[in-house]
Amino acid sequence: MATVTSLARAVGGVGNPSRKAYFVQQEVDFAAAATAKGTALAAADIIETISVPAGSMVVNAGIQVVEAAVGGTGTTLDLGVTGVDADVFVDGFTFDGAAAAAYAQNAAAFQPVVLGAADTIDVLVQAGSTVSISGKIRVWAILMDVSDVGDTAAAEVDRDQLA
Length: 163
What we know:
CATH topology: Jelly Rolls
């Protein structure tokens, strides 16, 4: 098992002054992932895709095929947060049988995930007799900052005492 970390994308889009859910995506090229790993991808390899800051909720995440897979048999993918649940968003998506523009369905046990510590949304190559040597997927996520905002009570100032 190897973890490809060089393809991860940092998040952005935190709403200000109020908090809002925001969308982020990252394209994963399987040929580039194999190059970054140094050898062909294999079952149990992890590809980090989206960095998620501490105190964030991953409302949902998914996979869309951008370019159909080539050269694989039985390549199935999971999508989750490896430190929490490796297949919480997608479980057993058949990558090498999917056409371009196909979306993976959420896992049956799907639920939003709140992260107490920074982590990444990861693609896990769950299985594959021969893992696809090329093809591209788009990993997308809807995130929201749910960390503590601190004391939101109005501050008393001198002018309030003068009246």
